[in-house]
Amino acid sequence: QWYQRRVKEFRRKLSELPEELFKLELAVNALNEELEQEKEGIQSNRRNVSGCELIWHLGMNLNPADGHYMDYLTGWHSGGSIGKEDKALAMDFLDRQVWKEPVDYLAIVRHQHGVVDAVKVFQFKHWGLSTLERFKDMNPGNVIASEGGPIQVSVDKNAPNLEDDPIFSVDGDLALNWWGNYRASRIMLTGGFTKGDLLTYHGLGNHMNCNCQSGSARDNNYRYEISNIQKCPYSSCSKPVIQGTDFGHTSYFQTGPVYGNYALYVSLRADTFPEPGTELTPTIEVC
Length: 287
Prior knowledge:
By secondary structure, the chain is of the alpha+beta class. It contains 3 helices and 16 strands. The chain has helices spanning 2-43, 96-99, 131-136, and strands spanning 55-62, 93-94, 105-112, 115-123, 143-144, 152-155, 174-180, 183-189, 204-207, 210-211, 216-217, 223-226, 241-243, 254-256, 261-267, 283-285. A hairpin with a 2-residue loop joins strand 7 and strand 8.
């Protein structure tokens, strides 16, 4: 009799299994749907609820006089958050979520208190990589990341300080993670190269004494955020001119005026950026 009871109980539990399996299948399907939605969200570069897919996202902002050093070794290849969202266009800033999403276009935007005065847009040669992946490529580094120069150049007719601006006074393609002889810049333009001497051309996110391929410092006294194009060879430029005050060894560098903040906007699909005079926000639609 006890045996019959056990058999009956076992059959009852077996009869409940299809329902439990069905619930489990529903849960797995729901999880798959969530994962697909997340993947689609990344692939569409965080498509806006309006349906616009031509969106620029602020990945980084550089202020060379805010007391924080966004040099070659800070943020670019680690991808950690820097700064606060409410100060994203006023201080050094890095959005870790934007930094790790796939992008095909980069806009370098010089702005004055959030208002555009100059912009260059580049299309990356290699599609589908995140900004973080691009700046992790330090070994061997020396990456020419675009072809044919910028696809958009827009400069306000009254924009000042263009004669030696590291981005807007020279032509050429994007050069990323460019280094040599312990000196390095995260972003330069090939039109600024002069006789292969890194001290005669500069860009955004710099260091003059680092283990550049591994991303570590030899001496942080030689870090600096934004440098102008130097108009003389190293032997006669005893004190390179650096924008603002965000640099290390004050007896080696000389401070120069701040030409503006430099914002890096990225996009998966947008290939044009709003013109000078536009007031910036962290997310910009161009539909």
